[in-house]
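Many introductory courses stop at the sequence. We go one step further.
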Amino acid sequence: MVDVNRVRARAKVTFGLSVLAAAAAVGWFWYQDTAATGLVLAVLFVVGGYWEYRRRLADARRAAQAESNVDERDRR
């Protein structure tokens, strides 16, 4: 059984970790005097994290929908 709320919570945590990694990248490369590299890497982290967040939510919705279709079909 798919717990959509649990999947959503885990997706939020992983997206938060991506944002944290982006902030760390900006900070590290800013310290190294190559801020542009840090900003590009941060954008990649955030965009990739958001992409994964949306994919996880879509997968959970599809799984829940398929599960409800099977349950509905079994009731007939």
